[in-house]
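task queued by scheduler; priority normal; single chain, no ligands, no partner chains; default sampling; output format set to structure tokens
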Amino acid sequence: MTVTQNFPVSPNIPQLQRRIKLLFQPIKYVEDFAEVYGDSFTVGRQDGNPLVYFSQPEALEQIFTANPSHFEVGRGNRVLRFMFGDYSVLLQDGDRHQRQRQLLAPPFHGDRMRAYGETIREIAQQASSKWQVGRPFDIRASMQEITLRVILRVVFGLEEGQRLEELQRLISAFLEFVSSPLMSAGFFFPFLQKDYGSWSPWARMRRQKQRIDEIIYALIRQRRAESEQNRQDILSLLMSARDVDSKALSDEELHDELMTLLIAGHETTASALTWAFYWLDYLPEVCSKLLEELDSLGDHPEPNAIAKLPYLTAVCQETLRIYPIVMTAFFRVVKSPIEIIGYKLPVGTVVVPSIYMAHHREEVYPQPKQFKPERFLERQFSPYEFLPFGGGNRRCVGMAFAMYEMKLVLATIVSEYQVSLVNKRPVRPVRRGLTVATPAGMRMIAKFR
């Protein structure tokens, strides 16, 4: 049956009040609206156009399988431009977007990706070996160190040395600053994205970004000048990649894609790993089952054998379900009128696929607030029911690599250490830039098993 109204119901809440709630209470923001208004609702405006949230599997299927020409995605996500650049695959549409995806995808699949397994485990072992047993440490900071070093080794091909250390330090400082409460507010209040002189936060952020850019461009120039042709890092593979017209990526395109992989690829995985350690401590029976499965592989298992373990996979999937790191898939701005589950949406409407609400539907995930990896062993979920990496032609190109890395890091550390929260109280997600994560400074204690 076709619904006569153009938009789902719209809460009558002042924009300022709504944005403040979205900034400081991101989970409560969508839960409260869903409780009152149901599966679909219209909130506020972006550039004068309404934002419409959808979470029903049938609605998400219609959005993700629609002809891409119906939507413009880059314009809806231009708030990311200052971090990633104009040429990032996240900000492209149409043929340019398709070209970038085709060039980026091959290194993240199959044998190429699996070749990085030992590197991932080695980095996880090195980072965890620095923990002082019995002494509290910041678990998120440790996971960020691991995932950032993985990116710098696997994507950039940087071995231990001054350049790796400098880039790691600069990126860590940049992300901590961007994810601070003040800079997080800048995503929702554009007036904060202004350079008010050298003392202003935005000016400081731009100086940090400029130094990172200088290092990346220098690395690209150096790599182009090298005669060695057998490097397997992702930067080298991207340099040798050609599109259907035999064109290579320019230095600017390479820079922006590297920034995208560097920031999006390690920050999100670090948050997911931090949540996984929280749940394994909060639910000892889950940890016991995981250890039993890991023990079944014997000593020194191959990375690929670890990655195939069903319960380990289920633990990672449930971690990404219950508190997805990114709460919505990419906003889609309607370019030509489209109908979604009976709502006729005009040009300019901003469509928001809600990952969080899709992951908390009672009829899909009974007892959705409970952490139950078994649900992923009992049935398979469609890409419109489980979508932690987005969907359709905008699904994260590094999805398979992120899952592979998450499994290997988790298995490597859990096999050697029991990691426990210092404070046993339940933890709720907080905003961290455009993502949600564990509260800052969450501390754990490691003991040898």
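post-processing summary
- The CA atoms of residues 78 and 312 lie 36 Å apart.
- Residues 251-282 form the longest helix (32 residues).
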